[in-house]
Amino acid sequence: MGDLIRLLRKGLPAEAVLTDPDVTASYATDMAGFCAAGNPAVVVLPRTVEEVRHVMRTATELRVPVVPQGARTGLSGAANATEGCMVLSLVKMDRIIEIDPVERIAVVEPGVVNAVLSRAVAEHGLYYPPDPSSWEQCTIGGNIGTGSGGLCCVKYGVTAEYVLGLEVVLADGRLLTTGRRTAKGVAGYDLTRLFVGSEGSLGVVVRAVLALKPAPPQQLALAAEFPSTATACEAVRRIMARGHAPCLLELMDRTTVRAVNALGKMGLPESTEALLLAAFDTPRAQADLAAVGELCTEAGATEVVPADSAAESELLLKARRMSLPALEALRPATMIDDVCVPRGRLAEMLDGTAAIAERHGLTIGVCAHAGDGNTHPVVCFDPADPEEARRAKKSFEEIMALGLELGGTITGEHGVGLLKREWLAREAGPVSMEMQRGIKGVFDPLGLLNPGKVL
Amino acid sequence: MGDLIRLLRKGLPAEAVLTDPDVTASYATDMAGFCAAGNPAVVVLPRTVEEVRHVMRTATELRVPVVPQGARTGLSGAANATEGCMVLSLVKMDRIIEIDPVERIAVVEPGVVNAVLSRAVAEHGLYYPPDPSSWEQCTIGGNIGTGSGGLCCVKYGVTAEYVLGLEVVLADGRLLTTGRRTAKGVAGYDLTRLFVGSEGSLGVVVRAVLALKPAPPQQLALAAEFPSTATACEAVRRIMARGHAPCLLELMDRTTVRAVNALGKMGLPESTEALLLAAFDTPRAQADLAAVGELCTEAGATEVVPADSAAESELLLKARRMSLPALEALRPATMIDDVCVPRGRLAEMLDGTAAIAERHGLTIGVCAHAGDGNTHPVVCFDPADPEEARRAKKSFEEIMALGLELGGTITGEHGVGLLKREWLAREAGPVSMEMQRGIKGVFDPLGLLNPGKVL
Q1: CA distance linking residue A167 with residue A159, whole number of Å
Q2: Structural domains of chain B sorted by starting position, each given as residue range(s) with its CATH number in brackets
Q3: Which of A45, A122, B98, B192 has its CA 20 to 30 A from that of A428?
Q4: Contacts with B184 from chain A: Cβ below 8 Å
Q5: Nearest residue on chain B to A211, alpha-carbon basis
Q6: Which Pfam families match (chains A, B) (predicted)?
Q7: Are strands A42-44 and A86-89 parallel, antiparallel or unpaired?
Q8: Which tens digits make up the pLDDT trace of A165-213?
């Protein structure tokens, strides 16, 4: 321990090495529930690639496990410390190095906050789509580590589709460059994508080349009320089958609608069983919305309310963004699940989740990126009541089991972390797990990088 | 050898095991020049996953190297046989298993021809974008193996972006399932992408889940004549910087334009130094074309000719598609390069290529996916003249060196294969090569799968 601090300080300024136990303890966890965490022995906050390399060389020399961290807004425990580990926080590496409108790329350090990058590229008429709900806090490095998504994925895809190239410090301190900064490139195995979603378990991302899109027109939204989840999901099916390209297609179940009203006085219709929000950022958004509104009515919507203005649209989206805090306000604690199923199975997923909630006598509100089939059931409970906590955990797992049964995945955009580690093996199967472990061994033969996460 | 055939026939019908040397010799190469090839000991043509597994188990048992093949239209020698190998042709596994407009996916076997899939999904109002110029012959398995692109990539990206999940037979015959059939999914390391572009060196793809797009409106094109490559490339810069989303942005240099006229009597303007083709498949294609036409004029175009109809557009695109055959008609042989540079460096790439041609006294025509910075210099030469062949090879390599110097990659969409194997190490560097070799070792510890390719 004394050795570790002494060696670290040889390559890091004093203020970049935190050892005060009260301070280091505050770096122990991300936002996931039900995940074990230990006390870090030390927290380091490097500002340069060379400092990160020094950190990893030191870790390798002394065989100290390293837990890379961004803003710790993750929801799967991937950033949780292990006992005696070194926390490697990348938040001080927060420079936007380059924004290029001709190449449509940004080059950034991992600690850049998602919203900061989004606003910076907007000034150049560009758009960085991935928009996880924590976008005002979360970092690009964390987004890459967890493979995060957001509301816009139904049109623009997830973080992975925007990562063109990386610089990565390996476990032994060597620097690896992957990918490219050109529009295309297929030279060799795709190491870039291997790092996306790897939760810092293969290396430490210290720089990223990100693809950008031209800024689209401002989006226009509508809300549609449905008498059942089945009719709302039928609308989703029809919208997608008809070839529409909404930039947002979200579903809030009754529990979520009521919670949002309770928290935000939003005046959403409480009689609805499912509220669908659709938005378009196309040149003909009003016409697209009208067409989608008709499909909603055909599918059984009792009311369709298109926003007349960007301001009205923003209000609808605000209601959606309030879903998670609103559900969190219902009970002392929540666990948010992240199951993604084929669009055609969405109704079964929602109804099955409601049945699980009822069976366990729990409140589970669901908001869903319906256009992607990606549901976020939020299990509300009181951790002070061990029996209720047990039921919460049980239903959380039954929801994942249901997702797998319906041909889905245990995680659409939050990652595996600690929370779903045992479930990964169930989804991927033994052959895949063996290959994944083999890859881990190639990059991190001593097993020092974020041990116990993902695999 | 006797053992091999006997064992293969235990799990394959007689007609699926070809041993006639005249027949097996015809499977020795793909379309690349300058690449060594050996005689296969046997060619197998399985029709089922179980048959592929039997093939790989047999190969592992007897330690016989296996070269997977599709339509052998590849341009890097990735499908070339090695002496005494077993060629594993996937062309008989050509079923389209599923097309689902709600999920926007197709599930296919590897031997499905690209054009067959494209037409099949079009009947459902869907679109499979990747369109390599060999699309009427090449197979989806080959597209995945080489990571192929095409004309549409400037808007729609390359094959990699359409592969959601795979079934892969590993070297030892085990079946690996990767990825998903949902819109999103981040469970574990991204093994799917590892196989895209791996040229059959990590496993044999036997099934793929592909993402589809809604069919766009029919495209409308324009042609613009430029007095220099510099002005044409300046137009490309402006078009991309202004946020336009053409579905095609192609450049033909003077040599190519003249060759196309000579072959096809197309009546293209021979006085031009560079011809730019742009197309839009947007709802407002005419307005988009007009805006792009203006940018071309501003950048120095001497003439801008927008097509008035889909038929006229098709004629322009036909000229572009004729580029390669037209250049091939100039001399007994050609080598086609595939260097992708940042868009902003395209003019330097083109002018540098012209200088290389001049220095070596060779004809090198360039057609380029200009919107992606992806150039295809076609080196024309007579292989019967060893001195000319030597100069051709030299210039081919100088073109790659120039691409790397300009911050580009040695291959935008054709792959590494045999042809660029030594160049991969130059582009990727020793750390990346070590990691890539480590990954190869995880999937194929005996080194039986397409030995000598990629790495």
Answers
A1: 16
A2: 2-89 (3.30.43.10), 96-214 (3.30.465.10), 220-263+275-320 (3.30.70.2190)
A3: B98
A4: 149, 153, 158, 340, 369, 372-374, 409, 412-413
A5: B157
A6: FAD-oxidase_C, FAD_binding_4
A7: parallel
A8: 999 999 999 999 999 999 999 999 999 999 999 999 999 999 999 999 9
